[in-house]
Design goal:
Blueprint: H1 2-6, H2 11-38, H3 40-109, H4 111-120, H5 124-138, H6 149-196, H7 213-221, H8 227-236, H9 250-263, H10 267-306
């Protein structure tokens, strides 16, 4: 515009050009006003939307700034409390360990009473497990507890003598219990024979079907090389049922006794005791059997003489 006005030849041309420019400017203003009138609603909505977006962005920036300040504050607080938290955590672990030790001490104090009950009911495997576990605890984690010294000595003494009781029970079942079953069966056969009044028909003593200790191992004793593992498995699988009579099954009871001796680590002493008492026990079996046979024979002779059959 300035170049056009400056290059004009005279004032009239400049006035003409100026008038034309002013007219164009006024036309532009009118067009703009018309467009504003036509699009007033859209323009108002756009301005409000822009204003709302601007406010949200500003609020978000303020919130982010506040969150950053809070995070920095938390970081400082956590940094200050870290040592205290670690100390509290360690104290919590210590208290938990102390509570466990107190519970263990309370349980161990009841061991002598429970041990007497198990020994009285002849549940030797439970008694052995309880005794070994208690002694291990007393000589391990609870070794420094001075108040348990008397209980420690008592249970240690019982553990040292426990295998003697198990060995006596094992011998009783090996030599006395098994032979008693033979004698009882022979008496029953003698009673049956006296009922038929025929002494010559009394059968010989049949011991082939008795479950003697040897027959417990007989099926796998002279078989394949895997028989040893099979015997070990059968012994490991033996469990004690506290609800049943422990001596009902003599073979299982002897397996329980051997398992208890193994837990006490007294198997060598057991083998030595069995070897030392073997001859004496066998002689006692012969003596008892001889007495029993003689008593049965005398009673049978008395019955026959009463029936006038002197033969």
């Amino acid at each position: 515009v300035l170049r056009t006005l400056s290059t004009s030849d005279d004032v009239e041309d400049r006035e003409t050009e100026k008038g034309r420019l002013e007219e164009a400017y006024e036309k532009c203003d009118r067009d703009l006003d018309e467009l504003i009138v036509q699009h007033y609603t859209e323009l108002t909505t756009a301005i409000r939307t822009y204003q709302s977006i601007t406010e949200r962005i500003t609020n978000s920036r303020n919130k982010i700034k506040q969150v950053k300040e809070n995070l920095l504050s938390c970081k400082m607080l956590l940094h200050c409390k870290r040592d205290e938290l670690r100390k509290l955590w360690i104290e919590g672990i210590e208290h938990k360990h102390v509570l466990n030790l107190l519970d263990e001490i309370e349980n161990i104090k009841q061991v002598p009473q429970k041990l007497e009950q198990c020994m009285a009911s002849k549940h030797y495997l439970n008694a052995t497990d309880m005794l070994v576990s208690a002694v291990d605890s007393l000589e391990g984690p609870l070794l420094q507890v001075e108040g348990l010294s008397d209980l420690r000595l008592e249970l240690h003494s019982k553990k040292m003598n426990m295998h003697l009781v198990l060995i006596d029970e094992l011998h009783r079942h090996l030599y006395i219990k098994s032979t008693n079953r033979v004698g009882q069966r022979n008496k029953e056969k003698g009673r049956i024979s006296s009922l038929v009044k025929d002494a010559s028909s009394v059968p010989l003593m049949d011991v082939t079907n008795l479950s003697t200790p040897r027959k417990f191992l007989e099926t796998s004793q002279f078989s394949t090389p895997g028989s040893a593992s099979m015997r070990e498995t059968s012994l490991l699988e033996i469990k004690e049922d506290t609800e049943l009579d422990p001596e009902e099954n003599s073979t299982v009871f002897m397996g329980i006794l051997i398992k208890g001796l193994a837990k006490l680590k007294k198997i060598p002493e057991t083998v030595k005791a069995i070897q030392d008492r073997l001859e004496q026990e066998l002689k006692q079996i012969v003596k008892r059997s001889t007495t029993q046979v003689a008593d049965n024979g005398y009673q049978r002779g008395e019955n026959l003489s009463q029936e006038n059959q002197p033969r």
